[in-house]
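One chain is below:
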Amino acid sequence: MIKGNIRTTLRIDNNLKTRIELLAVKNNLSFNKMLIYIIELGYGTYMRKFDNYYEEQNKKIKSEVLKDE
């Protein structure tokens, strides 16, 4: 797999930018690496919740089908 850079523009308010900068300094990371880490962490959390939601929906559908039979 070839890894490439994608240029994007992200608009964040100064308060959030400052907090991310402070986290980056605290963890000895650059601002960009910290931002990427936070985005990946959020994406991972989103995907876990997404998967759990559909697993629960499948369980509900299966239980309703079993009740109808």
